[in-house]
Amino acid sequence: MNIGEASKASGVSTKMIRYYESIGLISAPLRTESGYRVYSDNEVHGLRFISRARDLGFSVEQMGDLLALWRDRSRASADVKSIALEHIRVLDEKAKALKAMSDTLRHLADNCHGDGRPDCPIIEGFAQAAPTSVKKRQPRFGVTDIAPDRSHA
Amino acid sequence: MNIGEASKASGVSTKMIRYYESIGLISAPLRTESGYRVYSDNEVHGLRFISRARDLGFSVEQMGDLLALWRDRSRASADVKSIALEHIRVLDEKAKALKAMSDTLRHLADNCHGDGRPDCPIIEGFAQAAPTSVKKRQPRFGVTDIAPDRSHA
DNA sequence: GGTAACGCTTCCAACGATGGGAAGGTCAAG
DNA sequence: CTTGACCTTCCCATCGTTGGAAGCGTTACC
After folding, report:
1. Of A78, B67, B107, B139, which sees the most CB atoms within 10 A?
2. CATH for A3-58, among 1.10.1660.10, 3.20.20.140, 1.10.3720.10, 2.60.40.1120?
3. d(C-alpha B71, C-alpha B89), whole Å
4. Confidence (pLDDT) at B127
5. Which nucleotides of D are covered by protein (CB under 7 A)?
6. In chain B, which residues have their Cβ closer than 8 Å to the Cβ of A106?
């Protein structure tokens, strides 16, 4: 299989496959005489593994750890589980933070007429008081924190 | 007030204040003869506004819109509300996506012994089946999608 | 044998928000 | 006058992913 086929079979774009190879997440595949990358079923399997881990929000670094465990037949499932549990914790924390923002905003929005008049609890809520006790910023989410919508493919 | 004081008073780092100025989110403040930025109470107020909007996950672009509305005394609260509602929708969507990931992973983890043995439903879950029907990737969250932890300040 | 579709490489850029640091100027207090 | 805390500008890095361009080789099909 060449890279295009491997991409289709795994759900990882050719760009990303080459990128993962460049950063050492996956090893360099064999090449044809003419230089084309050739992927074995096993390698495609690994790409699918990556695709799935990625969809669950694992970082490239974590995917590296998981791949190593995947390939290690003498792994301890405890090691896998601990990575997973830590990731779950992070995911839940993020979700909680998002929900808190949403709730705060919802509360403000519920009290906003939403008509042609200028008075608005939302704007006022941003403008007034609560000098945020200055430091110790909370982790934040921006609109773009969700990965750029690759779904326009 | 110089930039350091304005930063402390608003909760926006000096780096970010300069950055917001550079991208035109805020206008350039007056300078002393020696080139130091000087912030009025009003400008600090604006920075606090930004700080709060940012904590609710608004993007810089949206903050620009909100700031414009804030300064526009003839604004329609409906305009503010619509930005807020749209943002709430996005926040909820992200939270939902995170929760779905967490749940999937939790399910796998619950079935993992987590001991010294190698068999692990998590790894197996990643490795097997579900070729992701190839394309149309979902928006994803990576570990780093949560803003880098600035709280080590 | 031509052509289109794919592949190759390298490099460069961007996204968003933020931090880090270097190299230098300024200001206040001792 | 020195010291230290502040300010200035400028560039670089992060994180994951995508895009593009340039320039050329290969493969498959008609």
Report:
1. B67
2. 1.10.1660.10
3. 25
4. 80
5. 6-9, 14-19, 25-27
6. 88
